[in-house]
Amino acid sequence: MTEGNFVDYVKLHLKSGKGGQGSAHMRREKYIEKGGPDGGDGGRGGHVIIKGNKNLWTLYHLKFKRHISAGHGEHGRKQEMSGADGEDQYIDVPLGTVIRDKETEEILHEVINDGQEIIIAKGGLGGRGNTHFKNSVNQTPRYAQPGLEGEEIDVTVELKILADVGLVGFPNAGKSTLLSVITAAKPKIANYEFTTLKPNLGIVEYRDYQTFVMADIPGIIEGAAEGKGLGHRFLRHIERNSTLLFLIPADAPDIVEQYQVLLDELRRYNPELLDKDKLIAISKSDMLDEELKGELDASIKGKFNNVPYLFISSVAQQGLQQLKDKLWQMLNN
Which of 160, 129, 156 is nearest to 273 (CA)? Predict the structure, then answer.
């Protein structure tokens, strides 16, 4: 799941604090006979709180911190003084993080907004002091409540990258090259499969200082939805993209077939992905002269179920402005 400092999946054991015990103290002061009960309440145990942080982009800071516990509440004291609450434990996570129950895999919470706080494990309530149990029948109760235990839970924390456009394609389709050309991102690029081992984000500058975010997802292979290759690890990141840009090289044996295979992998992973806006970019089209491009255009026209397509070349920087125009139009419809 990792390359360098990028981590998008961790397992955590969380434990909130125990509530403090109530005090059973009896008031004893000079010249005051039978002062009666004056025990205070115990403090609440500390919560474990998930907090959204827009400045984070990875879960690396949690990689080596698998057990997280909050502080215990202090015991109640005399003179009806309550014990201090236990210290809350905050866990900062990037926006787009999903918290699941480790056992049931049920989604417990999703963190979308900066500063959003979610109590994932509540601290135990503090016990009540003996002053609460005084009545006309029992005016000197010599007992108090114990504090309640905190909660304990095992969770998985998954990061789903928030980006406007997600690049979808087979390994070596030119996704990293495109990202490096139209954004300031500097992904690793080489002429072999699986160069990209982690998602990369880049900000695309558009007209009038407007921008949108593009994510390069590691290449998908046939069978990725069943766990083959690397792409299946990162299919979760595509779920957050509002538009999917399919990148298929012009020298592919069958462009239409490659598109159908990619669609099928997304369908098997999550059928809802097919409801997203889609655009197809035929990359590496600088290898084609006008005659070959015309023949290829004629052979694929009408075979993408009304999904628009265009020809681009990241190396020769051909068709990139038209690509940005089309993506901007789709994002702002």
Answer: 160
